[in-house]
């Protein structure tokens, strides 16, 4: 178990199996020490944990938890990119989050904090990243949240 996985366990969290792509893409690409992670929705076992819009169907708090599920899925894919060793991660560079939002919902950044805060908790200052948070009309599988990320890793 890596230090990162031990930290997750101390938070009461664990990595899910890496999600399988549902379309024509791969879970990550690596260019040198940079890993580009494909967007992950709030799914576990191929089924979204929440479906619908924020805040019409789900509270900001529930959607924030869904964003954390996205982050866990990203970490599962990042583990693959690192050959099974999340301790090779040097820092999180960027996060982009998309919220299946009701018209006029302006608190999208609060939802994406569910992912950002997990990366900060795991890597401290090295988890601080540039970020985009966008409200959208729809997401795959009617998921509530989708998040992608870019990380720098050691060779």
UniProtKB/TrEMBL annotation:
InterPro entries: Endoribo_LPSP/chorism_mut-like (IPR013813), RutC-like_sf (IPR035959). It comes from the Bacteria. Residues 5-144 form the Endoribonuclease L-PSP/chorismate mutase-like domain. This is Endoribonuclease L-PSP/chorismate mutase-like domain-containing protein.
